[in-house]
Give the backbone structure.
Amino acid sequence: MTESFLSPDRYRRSAALFEAAQRVIPAGVNSTARAAFSGWTPHPIFVDHGTGATVVDVDGNEYIDYLLGLGPMLLGHRPEGVTRAVIERIQSVGTVFAMPTELEIELASAIAAAVPSIDTVRIVNSGTEGVLYALRLARTYTGRRKVIRFEGQYHGFADAIYWSKHPDLAVAGPDRHPVAVAQGPGVPTEMGDSLIIAPWNDLDAIEEILVQHGDDVAAIITEPIMCNTGCIVPEPGYLEGLRELTTRHGALLIFDEVITGFRIALGGAQAAYGITPDLTVLAKGLGGGFPVAAVGGRREVMDLAADGTVSIAGTYSGNTIAVASALESLRFLSHEASYDDLYRRSNRLREGLAALLAERSIAGDVVGVGPVYQVWFTDVEIHNYRDAARHARADLFRIWWEEMLDRGVLFHPGHLENLFVSFAHRDEEIDATLERASDALDALVLRARTLTR
Ligand SMILES: Cc1ncc(COP(=O)(O)O)c(C=O)c1O
């Protein structure tokens, strides 16, 4: 195949809509991850609709979807039960009352029953909000100021935490002692003083920090599986070590399960790895595609919100759309969904892709857990952000993405994003994806010869 990527004929309407969008929407999109500068060059692809595991764009191109809205569409697009529950709730009840409704109790109980570490929980609207509240709770509970966060992770776009996601290594300090790098100039620099940036998968580094700053560390916040730098799995004993060290130094352990929650298992990564964090943030997997999130955990920490010591607010928190979608989604995940099937299909695709790379002697690997992973083009094992920044080939990933897109397989163009498999993906889609991947990798081998690094 020639370099037909985004040929004007194939994406005519998307290109026209992008022109129109830029006149009234900065960058033509409503979130950074959708922007041309985040990889969607020459322009984002505008969607017409999605159904199950399929997305159709405005030019009529059809894709098997592994982007899944960057995670929320765990049940596929327009899952029937969730759609029906939401419509029914709006029509029969309404949406926002600034007063509680009975279903909120049912939802909180369902979340607490599903997620091992959660005694009580507040419903909020986004992962960013959930993280903010978790940090506030931790600082209040411990009376301490600093939070340890890891380079390469993302915990939402709030000023207090939007630091060192994918920093330029030229300004990010030494490997063992990264400096805090703000997302951009609008983030107040003084907020960096309340963060300590650490390399992931390195317990010695954490122990060193805690020995030095332990009295002032309120919490460690981490994704239990690092899904914001491609996909990086925790080394054996790493999460256990974080649990042990935080307990020993009187800090809280916050699991940001915005991506892993309800996806790695019904109880999230914490259930799969058998680790009990003090606080957990949940979002993307919770609402079948509707905006709903949650922050929950140990009763005595969450009780700080019971008397108003910590304010967890929000006009839209616990609105009936959020609650109905999450309840129905949890009902499906608890009673109808088969995680065994999800894992079987996901593993078949992951292992199939890895075999296709190996057959062509392409240096690379497919790394992740169950239905979330990423294809790394590298001959070095990736353990943390700096490994990825130094060794993962963005140029090869780009060719892979273009060739797959041309063949009707969709995922995010960024090599530090993920591939997601949903409960709606069937064996047919996995087979078709592997067939197309085989062709795409043949094309990649040809095109890679012309690359200079
Ligand atoms: C691990 C993690 N935490 C938090 C967030 C922020 O969630 P939201 O976009 O719902 O604010 C994200 C979003 O991608 C995420 O991946």
